[in-house]
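In this supplementary section we document a worked example of the pipeline. Step one takes a protein sequence of length 441 as its only input; no multiple sequence alignment statistics are reported here. Step two produces a three-dimensional model, which step three serialises into structure tokens for compact storage. The input and output of this example are shown verbatim.
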Amino acid sequence: MVYSFYEIGWFFFIYSFIGWAAEVCAAAFNRKKFINRGFVSSPFCPIYGTGAAAFAVFLPELRGNLFFLFLGGVILASFIEFSTGALLEKVFHKKWWDYSKIRFNFEGYICLRYSLLWGTLAVLLIYFFNPIAVSVIRLLPVMAGKILLWILGGVLALDALGTALAILGMQKRMEQISQLTEGMVQVSRILENAITVRITRRMDKAFPALEVKALKEQGRKKEKERVFAAGCSFYKLVSLFFIGAFLGDLTETVFCLITTGRLMSRSSVVYGPFSIVWGLGCALLTAVLYRLREKSDSYIFIAGTLLGGAYEYICSVFTELAFGTVFWDYSGFRFNLGGRINLLYCFFWGIAAVVWMKILYPRLSRWIEKCPVKMGKVCCWVMLVFMVCNCLISAMTLGRYEERQRIGGTEEAVSGINAFLDQRFDDERMERIYPNAKIVE
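The serialised model returned by step three reads:
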């Protein structure tokens, strides 16, 4: 079953509320009092809604196989939970949940117990809860439902923004206090407004183990300012994205030449030899695995296998939903999951993670950091603007190519943009750029 964006939006808010209620009940049971355990002040836990929405988008095609559905839920939920936890710690310098004391955990972000629970919930959602939720959603008048969704989305966005600013304000206050002498210590004005004070108090109650690493970060920031893209910074990840996109395209081209004897394009975009899947994978896996770089090879291999498989599966579903096109199909391989991933290539992701973190990344990191600071920043932003425009044009050409395949020609190219796309990116050129692309319903 394919759900509409309207239904998925409601899934997000319904399960965000249910998740928030479950967290509040668990906290009330453990501490014997009401505590708002959500990141935001409103009664929503967005990570639960995100997980439920992701299940609704990526897992319905696995409905026919209970084991694969369960496994897909485990992998997808673990990927979301790990990425969210690592991102929140990166931004706010705090672990919002910690499974370090639970057996079979991974860096405290995920653990086997809750991953299996997520897999079970995925099965229950797909088979039982989502059909019930859809029947309830359809009782609402569509226009009223859409208006209510927009209102809820706006309230949640403002709430999340206010909470983020409050937490960053707490960090700023600690930095300012650290710069004052003992006799001149005073509370920063950042926390003087009533809304911020309220959010701060709620955070103290909900997360008593809150640890802001402001003092250490202050010293690190001063050191990073002297070096371009020091550590696992924004500019480092942008640089790695472009390096990974180019090397990934080159690797796939050589691999296809060796295995098939054909020299074919493996690029994701119409301009330049860049594979977006490889580039994003390089940046995302670096951001996630950076803290594991000192771990053993087997540890990184397992992490790379799981994260790489989840990432490739998500990319496959997204491109099919967004462009109506399948760019790879592993149905002919043994141990494949919906033709989107297979065990052999997941192992390749694991091997690539080890080679990347242990051999390639340290060398590339040193080379990137040798760039002059100003020139490096300018180059990163120029390349980002180029790639955004490149992706937009590529998306339009793929959309028009799909449309031409469905209508059987270019006769209906009335608007100027369609005429331009038909002229500059005809079927012959598109088939050269995307030789393995398949149009799907």
